[in-house]
Amino acid sequence: MPQKIRVLVVDDSALMRGLLSQMLGSVPDLEVVGAAPDAATAREMIKSLNPDVLTLDVQMPRMDGLEFLERLMRLRPMPVVMVSSHTEAGSETTLRALELGAIDFIGKPRSDGGRSMDSYAEELVEKIRAAKAARLRRPMTTSPATSSPKPAAIPRNGPSATGRIVFVGASTGGTEAIKDFLLGIPADCPPILIVQHMPVAFTASFARRLDGLCAPRVIESQGNEKVEPGTVYIAPGHSHLQIKRSGNGYLTELTASEPVNRHRPSVDVLFDSAASVVGKKAIGVILTGMGKDGAQGLLRMRQAGARTFGQDEASCVVYGMPREAYLIGGVEEQYALDEIARRVVVAAAAA
Questions:
Q1: Per-residue pLDDT, 199
Q2: Is 263 a catalytic residue?
Q3: Which DSSP state fits 226?
Q4: 86 is annotated as an active-site residue
Q5: Are residues 129 and 244 both part of a single domain?
Q6: What does the similarity note say (predicted)?
């Protein structure tokens, strides 16, 4: 019989500790070994109970989740899933937690009818399982300005002059992977459309964060924007992102249709539009993430003549989506994350 995943719940709310413990404790392959109200208690419980995965509240008394996470990842690295409030401040803090080494995050359950508790519990359990299997990243210990790679050198004819458009999809581990990818992209880049699986409250903060770090302009798509070189369009958490023709150019398009592969936005929806609308002028990139969203869409892009790239297993936090795309032939070339930007710039410059 497989060994159970041992989970420690850390939250200053007794109600939340009880709710999360109940959700996780009812799953056969999970075992809640303890529940801590603060960082000091959590530290001692980690020493005595040796959990496999930690769920960690962002906001706690005395020592907040970020400070505790930073110390934990330095002294005793382990998989952590952040449990965050659905606020702008909560989203900014959560993105920082992912920089510090947390594997994933989930918003706190809400009683406003947004989703069922069963649906929430299913997602939480899925994230715990993925965290247990994930590859721990080395946390960022320096500021982005001092640790960023230089953008790839621009070939003489310039990557934005060839009419290419880049389409990127990611999930678990993707916030940092997308950041690292874009840090290697020059300001004079082709348009880039990105789907990152992320709740509604987080995508605007994610786009602003990237815009402050990367050479290209980064925005959360509002729909019907002209698709222009030097601009990155992030799918909002409430809608699928697609591309459509408009005269001699292209526009972004948002649709609130049903989730695909249980996701909205879905990578497959973006990639399918790239295959049908942009065809051989498209470049597809699939990065770290659990599940298979984007695999079939990337295959359809490749069949339509697009160049397609996948992140390799060694550099993925979770080698799920890139693996599925690779196995079915959707990935033309597979590289480590720190090499993909350069390869995309070269491909974009090709006529």
A1: 87
A2: no
A3: B
A4: no
A5: no
A6: Belongs to the CheB family.
Total tally of structural domains belonging to the chain: 2
Helix, coil or strand: residue 334: strand
Active site residue: 180, 197, 266, 268, which one?
Answer: 197
Q: 8 and 46 in contact (C-beta within 8 Å)? A: yes
Distance CA 11, CA 190 (A): 44
Asked if residues 311 and 322 have their Cβ atoms less than 8 Å apart, the reply is yes
For residues 138 and 215, the answer to whether their CB atoms sit within 8 Å is no
- Report if residue 139 sits inside a domain: no
Q: Is residue 141 part of a domain?
A: no
Show which of 133, 156, 178 is a domain's final residue.
133
Residues 112 and 245 in one domain: no
- What does each C-alpha distance from 158 to 85, 154, 161, 229 come to in angstroms? 43, 6, 6, 11
Tens digit of pLDDT for each residue in 106-149?
A: 988 876 656 789 989 999 999 999 999 999 976 654 444 444 56
Out of 57, 104, 293, 312, which one is annotated catalytic?
293
Catalytic residue from among 21, 91, 160, 171: 171
Q: What is the pLDDT of residues 226-261, one digit of tens each?
A: 999 999 999 999 999 999 999 999 999 999 999 999
Whether residues 20 and 82 share a domain: the answer is yes
Are the C-beta atoms of 193 and 278 separated by less than 8 Å? no
Active site residue 293: yes
CATH number, position 192: 3.40.50.180
Q: What number of other Cβ atoms are within 10 A of residue 72's Cβ?
A: 23
Domain around 59: 5-133
